Amino acid sequence: MTDNTAPARKPRPGLGRGLSSLLGDSTREAPVSGVERQPSGVRLLSVTAMVPHPDQPRRHFDEAALDDLAASIALRGLIQPIVVRPHGKEYQIVAGERRWRAAQRARLHEVPVLVRELSDAETMEIALVENIQRQDLNAIEEADAYRKLIGEFGHTQDALAKLVHKSRSHIANLLRLLDLPAPVQQLVVTQQLSMGHARAIIGAPDPEALADRVIAKGLSVRETERLAREAKPQPLGGAQPRGSRGGGNATDGDADILALEQQLGDALGLNVRIAHGEKGGTLTISYSTLDQLDMVCQRLSGDVI
Predict the structure, then answer these.
(1) Does the annotation count 97 as an active-site position?
(2) pTM surpassing 0.85?
């Protein structure tokens, strides 16, 4: 009896599976023009043969951290290869520019690389995921990368959420930061202003002046939210804006609290409720099975990423 069943297709790597999925399992490498084909896999390449990607998400490199990494590389070598792609007569860095910069400071002439043939969209995806996994991006850099992937390569917010293992509300909240004036965005880049503070002053009549005041007085996020509400024009009749009802639970009227509930709920796959008041509040996570409780405990203890 003949089996006419067609062989099952190998599933195409999808979004949300990390760098290994994005890089794929290809065993071939295309040579740069004028460069003879070399065996696949990791190989050594001169640091002068590589150039940074002009649109890579990471813009801010901490000098002290680079010096520390360079000292480590000088002592132990570069353990993780840099991912590059052919680019004319050179190789363009896809992931690992920070390691490349540190290797130069450590006076290395050659470093291990993995050469891949990648499209512009794939290059942006890999660079974004690699930086997020290492927590190397500030909020503005991350938001700008999302905007490029949406505007230039047609990604949706849902697809990006799967790609980087974040909730859709996280993507949306970061994109809102790009509505801030450039000087305020720069304060986030230099870590003088946190993402929470920056979100609180979006839509304020004078966000730059408010940001300066927050930094000068060392205000908390909640204090910043209060000042931002007070700075907005009051509606006719003296009615209070939503979320400013004084003491008690402001959850129902606070868009940031609601967004945070959604973000945590998306991350855990469970119902999350935040009850916040002037003197603090409670965080409630509802579960249905012991397996769900075990998952929450593992997340809180750091046993699961």
Answers:
(1) yes
(2) no
